[in-house]
Amino acid sequence: MVETSRFEELLPRAELHEALDLVSIRAVRIETRTLNSLQAFLRPGGKLLLFRGSSKNELEDSPPPPLAWMATFPLIDSLHSKLVILNKTRV
């Protein structure tokens, strides 16, 4: 399933809660509230892919539970972009 909508529009859809193995998001300011909303879509063990620019955000390395940092990979050197992967831990 691929949804190309704002995640806020998808939150009311109960059938999407804890139903996805992978969520990808881009061009969104990462805040605790955002991560808490996004993790609602993930099954335990699911992955959240964050495409980030050069700005550093401490939530990328130490997100709120039940999310945990897995890895960060550089993407385009000249843009200082990166891919941050978070995992929804099993609770």
Task: Summarize, please.
This protein is an alpha+beta fold and 91 residues long.
How do the strands line up in the largest sheet?
1-2-4-3
Q: How many structurally independent domains?
A: 1
Helix/strand order: HEHEHEE
- Rg calculated over all Cα atoms: 13 Å
Broad structural category: alpha+beta
Assigned CATH superfamily: Vaccinia Virus protein VP39
Cα distance, first to last residue? 25 Å
Mean pLDDT: 88
Regions with pLDDT < 50 over 5+ consecutive residues? Answer: none
Q: How is this fold's topology laid out?
A:
Elements: H1 7-10, E1 20-26, H2 32-39, E2 42-52, H3 58-61, E3 67-74, E4 82-88
Parallel strand pairs: 1-2
Antiparallel strand pairs: 2-4, 3-4
Question: What do these coordinates show?
Answer:
Strands 1-2-4-3 form a 4-stranded mixed beta sheet, with helices on one face. It has one domain (7-88): Vaccinia Virus protein VP39 (Rossmann fold), CATH 3.40.50.150. It has 3 helices and 4 strands. The mean pLDDT is 88. The longest helix has 8 residues, at 32-39. The two termini are 25 Å apart. 18% of the residues lie in helices and 36% in strands. It is an alpha+beta fold and 91 residues long. It has helices at residues 7-10, 32-39, 58-61, and strands at residues 20-26, 42-52, 67-74, 82-88.
Features:
single chain; 91 residues; alpha+beta; Rossmann fold; 4-stranded mixed sheet; 4 strands; 36% strand; globular
